[in-house]
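User: Let's play a game. I give you a shape written as tokens, and you guess the letters that built it. Ready? Here's round one.
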């Protein structure tokens, strides 16, 4: 298998995935198909999906929000982890990628749990805020320039005690390398600094994949 995290050697990644990650066959089928695409690197790691599903079950989440779908791996594991009456609102702008996602959501028989919103995520988030919708859990893995706006909206949309998970916070290690000063890396540095001092949340950083920030809403 391809190495999925700069934090692990390939051998260690294999060990983690073979020992702890247990997914239905449809999940591996989607990952294999996505792995053939030039943009395959946008897909979250197997261990990350396992953690998302575990956290959703741990807090007994029923209403979840996902910002950034790609081909639907994280949405799929979220929907599988939700109870029969659970719902995930999934935000993305690409019909091309999400058409692949919908194929596998249907195959897994969880498509009835997924409300896909094809529109700029900030527009969808504004509508959700205006409607007074509340979530138990939110996963953010989308365009980095809007990360803070997504996070700020997610905090306001998530119930007290609910959980927000943000991907790519270690930015493949560049975040800690002072010699790296490109715009994307600086955006992630600024985002991390703001989240780490946000009084609305309690945070924990989990070094899986490209780094998860876990933020519990106070």
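Assistant: Ready! My guess for every position:
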């Amino acid at each position: 298998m391809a190495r999925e995290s700069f934090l692990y050697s390939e051998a260690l990644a294999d060990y983690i995935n073979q020992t702890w990650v247990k997914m239905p066959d449809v999940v591996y089928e989607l990952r294999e198909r996505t792995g053939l695409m030039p943009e395959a690197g946008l897909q979250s790691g197997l261990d990350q999906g396992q953690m998302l599903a575990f956290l959703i079950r741990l807090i007994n989440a029923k209403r979840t929000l996902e910002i950034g779908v790609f081909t639907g791996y994280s949405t799929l594991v979220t929907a599988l982890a939700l109870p029969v009456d659970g719902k995930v609102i999934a935000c993305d702008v690409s019909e091309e990628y999400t058409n692949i996602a919908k194929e596998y959501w249907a195959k897994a028989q969880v498509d009835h749990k997924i409300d896909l919103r094809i529109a700029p995520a900030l527009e969808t988030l504004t509508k959700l805020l205006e409607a007074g919708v509340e979530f138990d859990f939110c996963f953010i893995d989308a365009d980095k320039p809007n990360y803070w706006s997504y996070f700020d909206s997610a905090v306001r949309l998530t119930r007290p005690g609910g959980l927000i998970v943000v991907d790519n916070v270690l930015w493949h290690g560049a975040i800690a390398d002072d010699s790296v000063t490109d715009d994307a890396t600086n955006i992630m540095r600024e985002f991390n600094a703001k989240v780490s001092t946000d009084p609305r949340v309690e945070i924990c950083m989990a070094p899986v994949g490209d780094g998860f920030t876990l933020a519990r809403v106070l």
